[in-house]
Design a protein that fits this description.
Number of strands: 8
Structural class: mainly beta
Helix content: under 10%
Distance between the termini: 10 Å
Shape: flat
Order of helices and strands: EEEEEEHEE
Radius of gyration: 22 Å
Oligomer: single chain
């Protein structure tokens, strides 16, 4: 089944044109993509098909009868320093430390647009 983006709420949240009436359930994952240009074989000139431009992956967070909201579930690959040792003793001994936590920032869908295609993964 292929559905479409009905509305872009934010760079990380989209509404699709399918809901519980179409079998959509909270927690399901979907891939958002668009169809790009036709690609030709450089040697034969034969069509290889059209390129799928992947815009992101999201999880259903809200379901209504005829629409659902998906939210990006991809996390940006960065870390954030939350605390460093400031003790003069540790610093003098060259044994300073820092504590890091993984981010909770979700990655944006790549240029999502109304009408983009959405399929289950």
């Amino acid at each position: 089944m292929v559905f479409r983006v009905a509305q872009v709420i934010s760079p990380t949240e989209l509404v699709i044109n399918a809901g519980s009436a179409d079998g959509i359930k909270e927690g399901q994952r979907y891939q958002v993509y668009s169809i790009g240009d036709e690609i030709l074989d450089p040697e034969t000139g034969e069509s290889l098909g059209q390129l799928e431009n992947i815009k992101g992956i999201g999880r259903v967070v809200n379901v209504q009868d005829r629409m659902a909201t998906i939210e990006s579930d991809v996390v940006q690959p960065t870390t954030k320093i939350i605390r460093r040792s400031t003790s003069p003793l540790y610093l003098a001994l060259g044994e300073g430390w820092e504590e890091r936590i993984p981010p909770s920032v979700k990655a944006d869908f790549k240029d999502p647009s109304r009408g983009d295609l959405v399929r289950p993964i």
